[in-house]
Amino acid sequence: PEDMTPPGFYQKLLPSMERPPLQLFKGAFGATDSLPYGDLQLLGWFFTVLYGLGIPVTFFVILYRGRNRLNQTDFGKKFGYLYKRYDAEWYWWETVVLMRKLILAGINILVLTPSGSPLPVPQAALGMLTVLTFIMLQTYAMPYVEIHLDVLETVLLTVNYTFLFLGLSRNMLENMKPYAKDRTMALLVDSFMMVVLVFGAL
What we know:
The chain is an all-alpha fold. The chain is 68% helix and 0% strand.
């Protein structure tokens, strides 16, 4: 059909090249214009590292310095939520949980093509390796005070690993020509993924 779009319509949607479309920090700290993209990228990396690594490291330092006061009431009221669910020898295990989340988030954010598109196969493979490592750490330490929490954590990590494996298999089926048209195999993988999701939610 004939394009009935008014002349110049798309040009109006394009950002002006005379000044950046994002005027971040304009007027703040004496800035008269938006910061250059390179500076914004450095700020992004700085706060990502500060938040992602700063919180686990801070928690570990607090717990390590207070390791002899874990049973004191004043220390427990402030920081008990970080260690009371774990055995005494694994009082710092919350930092391990945070590091696992940080690594998985980093894989999802950083493992991309230069254009910013995701790379499903490397992401899934690295995610599986990460989860498998923490499954082994979890089964070795069994750090929770209550045994059912140890079992639950191990099961959830296993579900996570299985789901990543099935997702990788599904992606391979879609992109491998000999299997791309095999809807039976794709349906089987999708069914397994649904079972894993339901099992993990129970």
